[in-house]
Amino acid sequence: MAGRVAHPAEPGEAGEPASWQRSLRAQFPIVVGHPDLVYLDSAATSQKPRAVLDAVQTYLTTSNANAGRGSYPWANATTALVENARDRIKAFLDDPDPGRSSVHFTSGTTEGLRSVARDWLPALLGDGDEIVVPFADHRANLSPWLEAQELLALRGVRVRVRRLPYQESSGDYDPQALARVVGPRTRFVAATHVHHVYGVDMNVHRIRQVVGPEVPICLDAAQSIGHLPLSTAALDVDIVVFSGHKAMALPGTGAVWSRNLRGPVFRPGGWSGTPNTVGVVSLTAALDWLDAAGTDRIERWTVALTSRLTDGLARMDAYEVLGCRSSLTAGTEVQRRRSLVTFRHREIGSRDLGFILFSKGFMVRTDGHCQAGRAEEEGSVRVSLHVHNTPQEIDALLSTLANLQ
């Protein structure tokens, strides 16, 4: 959680990669197979370890069938795989009451949040109620709530949407300002675990302290799943939505975990149809791999790398690092960025800088990053890391950027 000093790097992380990290890096075929390229876009989609690819291959060549549609062994095995995946997600999220909670599969975070807004939220709200949502996070965690407000208005139910306030000094949510926003008609809060542009742990646990024990909290965990531990018990949230492809699984599969304690039980509307069984298989394998690797260790590694990058960028006048400026000072008490760093060159446009970096072998994201309230012309370069990245790659990137000053 934010508000703490980031874990220091483990021995060896400041120079040569630690032996455990070398072992994990070797498990990514695409990384090993392209030693001349550096993948720095894990926030957009993650690369897949061999264990995930093998699990998919095994399933497709031994027991591929539809789930819940047949009684023959392959169909039964697939049905069991899907149901076991729900339990696996609950365990990965440190579910405090797995007998009450539910897991529903979606195509990803965006569709999951839209399902919550479309299928669950309206039953919670009445005329004159208020919801609090983020206006500077990913658009996927703003647009669905505004759409729900419009749909309810057509039914004659007027819902006020309030802005979730941010702290300028740290970049995360502002609990003191939130206390002035929350009122007796507050019925719902949407939040983000880790910001997709600034890399900040948004201190969601403090939201519960402000809103009290009855208000449901929905968490966008797209940028935290697989990068750091996420305990639904500790955060005391009610809904967690995430994408599998950002957590080392295949594209096209995400999940909505619902605690079903506050508000109505979450049930997606309409006929669900055939689940993405291959994606579900890959997601279970990815969570197994992440547990074995240790998300706490992955967090320490990526925080160390992003600190290395921000410390280097802070010494270059040509670059502006987006987000909390206080966190650019080594030894700061402000939290360091988790897994991603976003910056601009003061003279070179972000797209041009992206082309230059790719010509040197670095793959980064360059645009507005789907941030709500920001135009695409406010582009920037986002470097997002995972456990397969190394200090040497960061140093090589910094050397390239230094030559562009």
Automatic annotation (TrEMBL):
Necessary cofactors: pyridoxal 5'-phosphate
Source domain of life: Bacteria
Keyword field contains Phosphoprotein: no
Reactions performed catalytically: (sulfur carrier)-H + L-cysteine = (sulfur carrier)-SH + L-alanine
Residue stretches making up the Aminotransferase class V domain: 38-260, 272-397
Keyword Transferase among record annotations: yes
Name used for this protein in its record: Aminotransferase class V-fold PLP-dependent enzyme
Organism of derivation: Streptomyces bottropensis
